[in-house]
Amino acid sequence: MEFNPVSKKQPDLETPEKTKEKEGLLVVRTANACIDDAKNQAVPLSLCGNFWFEGEVAILFADTNVGKSIFAVQSANNISDGNSEGMFGSKAPPQKVIYLDFELSDKQFERRYSVEWENHYLFNSNFLRVMINVSFTDFENFEKQLFEEIENILIREQAKVLIVDNITYLRMQSTESGKEALPLMKHLIQLKNKLSLSMMILAHTPKRSNPMNPLTVNDLAGSKQLANFADSIFCIGKSSQGEHLRYVKQVKARSCGVSDNVMVCELDKPYNFLGFTFKKEDKESNHLQTKSEAEEELKEMITALKNDNSELSLREIAKELDINHMKVKRLCEKYNL
């Protein structure tokens, strides 16, 4: 008699559709199925040159008074207007931009985009600027209400682009440590995924102890936790070649390659719009301070601190400048400060 081995019936693997219906944590597909699904999705368009694409979370960081808010407004203006010109243009159709401005007052904003308070720049009506209500007093529930209202504004305005200037104001505490940055970024990512947003988040750098070194992701406050959640990270540095020269550097990208060069720009206001004018691509090393320039800047900062408070100890000055106290001691002795 012929023996027919009984084969065990293999369990049916659920299709991705069934898995999604159950809203489980994980979805299993073949690599080819992933590509087939991606074919039906639109190709992400550039929102800011090669620095930010649709559907991405981008982080822009820089030191104080370098121009990150100016750059962000310029980017928002290009997106709202559908302006594709230049290195930082948007290839996407004109669309609404929600710009959370926790930095400038209305009058400060007016000054940047006018000629001495007259002949004002006319923004596209797609550019929606959001500020904190000065009458708001319920700071105990500040964070909860802030995120609820951000979500409501995005839904009401049917906007898909959000710019946050800057991340520090989204929490009552500092975001310089990863411990504080983690829940904040998770909340932002949840909002981004829920509403299919493209998001640019502005952040600052802690005091840099050595301006001779190139900018890296480590110069971003709360760097490790913030960087893990970002699709793109770029920064702005001050060029040593001129007071109004800046350079834009990409340090992380998922939609394109990271160039070895930086984009050198001039911060200028030819008429009624303060912005970045692209000049050339160059090596970052050509725009970093030399040892003597860095020492001179440090000497000026130590002198300023001593003039403000002559009782400051070397250790207190070192802590304020985030450098070694022996370095402060050597400079004080060298220049008789």
3D structure, described in words:
The chain folds into two domains: 46-287, Rossmann fold (3-Layer(aba) Sandwich), CATH 3.40.50; 291-335, Arc Repressor Mutant, subunit A (Orthogonal Bundle). 27% of the residues are buried. The radius of gyration is 25 Å and the shape is globular. It is built from ten helices and eleven strands. It has 337 residues and is α/β, with parallel strands linked by helices. It has helices spanning 16-22, 31-39, 68-81, 106-112, 142-157, 178-195, 223-229, 291-308, 314-321, 325-335; strands spanning 46-48, 52-53, 57-62, 97-101, 127-130, 161-165, 198-204, 232-238, 245-252, 262-268, 275-282. The strands form two sheets. Strands 5-4-6-7-3-8-9-10-11 form a nine-stranded mixed β-sheet, sandwiched between helices. The chain has a two-stranded antiparallel ribbon with strand order 1-2. Residues 288-315 form a coiled coil. This is AAA domain-containing protein. Pfam families: AAA_25.
Short summary of the structure?
The chain is an alpha/beta fold and 337 residues long. The chain has helices at residues 16-22, 31-39, 68-81, 106-112, 142-157, 178-195, 223-229, 291-308, 314-321, 325-335, and strands at residues 46-48, 52-53, 57-62, 97-101, 127-130, 161-165, 198-204, 232-238, 245-252, 262-268, 275-282.
